[in-house]
Design a protein that fits this description.
Glyoxylase I family protein; alpha/beta; four-stranded mixed β-sheet; 2,3-Dihydroxybiphenyl 1,2-Dioxygenase, domain 1; YwkD-like_dom; metal ion binding
């Protein structure tokens, strides 16, 4: 068995780089750690952190294929972010024209959660602590 310490990062490929950059920084509040344009690939790589923890690499590539189905396609199903007050965060998202599904209760934990999508339709979950 290997000894994994923690998740290092999540890599996301987007279709519209500026739209996704604005979404993750201006709406979700991620901080830009580094932004690189790789001319040979015609691609940006944006390193994002939250509360001092490096979490997301946002990539742009020319004409990436669309996700085939969702959410039960093989591979990453969604990413989830923990919040203290889900109603407050849902209202904050709505104020920025990002709409969530109805808040549900996790039948195993009794905790509140909801889903919304990033600009490319990647499912994102908010889960109340």
């Amino acid at each position: 068995m290997i000894h994994i310490e923690r998740i290092h990062h999540i890599a996301i490929i987007c279709r519209d780089y500026q739209l996704s950059k604005d979404f993750y920084t201006k709406i979700l509040g991620f901080k830009i750690e580094q932004e690189i344009y790789r001319e040979e690939r015609n691609s940006y790589k944006l390193d994002l952190s939250l509360n001092g923890q490096y979490l997301i690499e946002l990539f742009s590539f020319p004409d990436p294929p669309a996700r085939m189905t969702r959410p039960e396609a093989a591979g990453l199903r969604h990413i989830a972010f923990a919040v203290k007050n889900i109603e407050k965060e849902v209202t904050s998202l709505a104020d920025k024209h990002v709409f969530t599904e109805a808040i549900r209760i996790d039948e195993c934990t009794g905790k509140k959660y909801t889903f919304f999508n990033d600009p490319d339709g990647l499912p994102i979950e908010l889960y109340e602590l």
